[in-house]
Amino acid sequence: MARRIISTIILLHACFCTVVLFAQPPRGPVFVSPEVNADNTVTFRFQSKTAREVLLTTQLEKGRVKMSRDTSGLWSVTLGPVKPDIYPYNFIVDGTSVADPKNSAVFPNEGFQSSLVEITGSTPLVHSVRNVPHGTVSYRYYQSPELGTRPVVIYTPPGYEKDSKTKYPVLYLLHGTTDTEETWTKVGRANIILDNLIAEGKAKPMIIVMPYGRAYPLISKSSGSLRSWENLQAFKMDFLNNLLPFVEQNYRVKADRDSRAIAGFSGGGGETLFLGLNNPELTSWICGFAPGMLKEEFDRNNAGAFKDPSQTNQRLKLFWIGIGTEDMLYPVVSEYIEVLKSKGIKHETLISDGGHTWMNCKRYLATIAEKLFK
Known about the structure:
The protein contains ten helices and 18 strands. By secondary structure, it is α/β, with parallel strands linked by helices. The chain folds into two domains: 35-119, Immunoglobulins (Immunoglobulin-like, Sandwich); 136-369, Alpha/Beta hydrolase fold, catalytic domain (Rossmann fold, 3-Layer(aba) Sandwich), CATH 3.40.50.
């Protein structure tokens, strides 16, 4: 009787495994995408037997690139050799943009879905992960009476946890329109850049605070640039009344304007200039990376700095602007720089090549990090 029961159990188990086996979805071809080759070329692949057209859009190339399909429905294209860096890309499948299903490295963004590919090359770059002491990246939340629970990513430098007495200067780093609080670490590699520069003795150890730059839900996610007047007002209130106190109550930071810096990209660059130039006690260090602006907003958004240029010069230790010659904002930022010159407001500029890209952002961050708090 016992043998019969055991046999029945074994038979039922075998039947169950068979059912599970047959219930599995059919497996497609095994492939890698993206594949970075030894010669720095990159092969992108996408599987679809039903798609009529698959295009690749990437900052590796200007314009969309057609992909070719083999008999199994595997679409592919190889580009390069490519200059080492981190690049966003996505596929356009019959007119619909999609991220690469084979790639877990995703660009954090609310406006589009892209993946990331890193070409390391033979020489470590400033954002390459190296064998140096690493800081800590923490995901935190603070409360706003107007906006509710707000996310913020905070980097503390190597040794912060072990040394309970040292206080550090702090860099508030703002992302671009449609980006999120994660973009500066996952795309801009802010934490890795600082790890490397601190290890080389080129940058002062500092804390980096990377908040979410849109005053949502008061300002809708579809409302346009972060530098819109409505978002500037709401974000300023949250920054000064909620974020700043949260950081200074929970982290060992030096709470004076000479120990606070603010920098930002694109729409976040517009926020940076507005906050920094119109709130004298906030910071002595203001850095705009391709800052978002319109000519008709110059006087309104810079009222505090323009009112008394000599006083502005006295309180600022660094006013820095970086812009690429191929950037869509290059014409208006160039006009803004001329206005600063005409008013006698001291500033530094880096006019680089390239466009409105996170490749330039990493370069700008590495440049200003060596200047801050010195």
